[in-house]
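Hi C.,

You asked whether I'd gotten around to modeling the 239-residue construct. I have! Everything is below, sequence then structure, no commentary in between.
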Amino acid sequence: MMAEALPILVAEGVTSGYGEVPVVEDVSIHIGQDEIVTIIGPNGAGKSTVLKALFGFLPVWQGRVSLAGDDVTGLAPELLVCRGIAFVPQTENIFPSLTIRENLTMGGITRADGVEERITWVFELFPVLAERPRERAGRLSGGQRQTLAIARALMLEPRILLLDEPSASLSPKMVETVLANVVEINRRGTAVLMVEQRARQALAISDRGYVLANGRNRLEGPALDLLASDEVRRLYLGE
């Protein structure tokens, strides 16, 4: 029997928050190297706080975070980026005064080489960006901005991509486009952990999911099992 693949990112008993106030307590999650994992839950459950703690934007007061088996608890975001974690926040995730190409170049600014090759790769993945590389990012639609934000995060070839509400404020059609992009990114070798309010659509493309409530783990399991759960459908899917 083959050994189980090592998870790319693991949080064990993480407690974090703002100031001295804990928002999430004793939260544990793990993401496999080839998985899409979605965190769902009601507003105020601490979903985005988990991502920020994993990426070093918030302190981890208790618990441990590991990346491919290495302890990265408490490392600053710039160090985690170099280790292979990318994070796309919900807002302020592009440089609106720069062009699409300039945004991508900034995304790869710490690369020693291969920036142009990576831009070519990103344009192949996202043709909508390749159509007008000199367009100012501030002129893009909401969905195009989100696509650019994700593309910029991919410039450093991360091992795992953290997405905070990638479909927020988008039209239904653009939600489908962004989630399809997530699937393709994963197919090309990048693990994905995302927080989503559109729980049903996000779980439909995910391998596994976690449900947070009141800052703690409530449920977890294969995404299809969560979608079929009466409790999840009643409490978190509005059915």
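If it helps when you're writing up: The CA atoms of residues 24 and 53 lie 10 Å apart.

Thanks,
B.
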